[in-house]
Amino acid sequence: MDVVHPGGTLITRTSGGQVRWWTWAGHRANATLAATLGTVAAPAQRVNDCWIRLREDVERQHWKQARADVSDQLCLPDVDQRAV
Prior knowledge:
Elements lengths: L9 E4 L5 E4 L4 H10 L14 E4 L5 H14 L11
Antiparallel strand pairs: 1-2, 2-3
């Protein structure tokens, strides 16, 4: 399965039905994106460096709406005071 495209990111569906958005953005960026995409991101997923798991029932129109609403819903991660 190809998961890289020179024109942008890809969304794929695995043979098991999981929908993945291949961001290649890194763990913290993907955690922020998953929290921001709340309605289309799969709940209780383990965030990783490469992709974000989306709900299996997400259709193109859901994805377009989630992307359109993202600037109003940006959800930045909590920063531990010990890290500052």
